[in-house]
């Protein structure tokens, strides 16, 4: 039996756990990651990387590798509803509706104004190898796949765990200051008494992952295509490109069946069903995997017990609508990494880690609820046009014929449906759910201001520099370089942003950095400063005067702001850091 001592033990090598490893390495935190599977995911799982996640990957030098393999926005920026993929009947291959989604089409300008990088589409089976490569490069020898956590205990001042090499059977004892469970909730959370709260499983869903050449029939440019059968609700499904190439060149697909009992389909009997669903009787199909999974709407009652923390699916599970699951998990890890680094580096007390739950659990609650609401509403949308699962076979055809009727009455049916479809923007155009989440309590100093009102459908984002919010994006210049304000934030430094009259803040920051042993980068934006606001975007969103200051955390959220000059800049900043770091 061997023994290892590390500051952090990560259990789980999926998207959340691997991201946590990358972020901790960039914070200079030694750690060990163990994953029971021999390799990264073999099934697509989550496939949409939202704008905030891509910003985080950009900060940590991962975005370029993701974008090199991901579908570009023009290849996935729509959502479609149509009757069938193929077939030659009068109601086959009829487009019911399509709308711009997730930054595509007419939304692109709005999304581009909100951040320095756009969303991307890359299923988890292609994303995880990229994350694993980055994790191994930054933490060589400490990313252990095919290793299983067999037991652990919180000893008060450390965690003691046993890890088994599933190839050799060798047991290693691991002593860690903190254990992070990113294992999907399989082991860690339940072991320390964390409960997942929420209703029983909402519905069973079957997904088949397969290869086929659909180029003759596929309408490229869609994130997801919903097929609403005019004959049989059990023939309704949705189809998603899974790469590794995109559009008409796509080779692999994910097909989600209508809800039904688990175990209906297997690798053999599902092939005729795929052909029937897609109306292509002679389609050559290679089935890779058939999975049954339960749609949940669960949130952990706690994110921390002693020295044990949870993140990702171990902390929250929601319907796939809006694509918030994996993104929320990666953002959990981003929030936690700098706090662990500050505590382990002696710059903050252990209680700083309590702010992880205080900040992230409300976001988890909102995202679970939003995903449930969007999923329920989508069902209402398709019910309204007569193609929901509760519409019997005889009436489905009648209702869809009325929808496509070229008469004036058909115009009215389509106009009514269009208004209902427009409400789906809360599911596929919810930019503010991607970048507008914020923290009210935690490692920040409130300034007494109220948050900007959020648009009910979350399809508009209103940037603000209010403490707890993500630093607003604006393009600035330094010589011939064009940067985002988000590029000013370091992976492990705090950043003080001021204007042309903010020199006292910068001088005070240097003294406070030495006093607290905390790295603080100072930057000034404006006329005569090292960074120019040539396009005026920063002035429009900064929320401070030329003499004011913003303190930004390593996770790019604002910790504190002063709209103008302070009476005693050094004392003020010292008090701010004492509060943020709980010193």
UniProtKB/TrEMBL annotation:
Keywords: FAD, Flavoprotein, Monooxygenase, Oxidoreductase. It comes from the Bacteria. Pfam families: FAD_binding_3 (PF01494), Rng_hyd_C (PF21274). The keyword Flavoprotein applies. GO terms for molecular function: monooxygenase activity. This is FAD-dependent monooxygenase. Residues 446-472 are annotated as: Disordered. Gene3D superfamilies: 3.40.30.120, D-Amino Acid Oxidase, subunit A, domain 2, FAD/NAD(P)-binding domain. InterPro entries: FAD-bd, FAD/NAD-bd_sf, RIFMO-like. The keyword Phosphoprotein does not apply. Residues 5-371 form the FAD-binding domain. The lineage of its organism: Bacteria, Bacillati, Actinomycetota, Actinomycetes, Kitasatosporales.
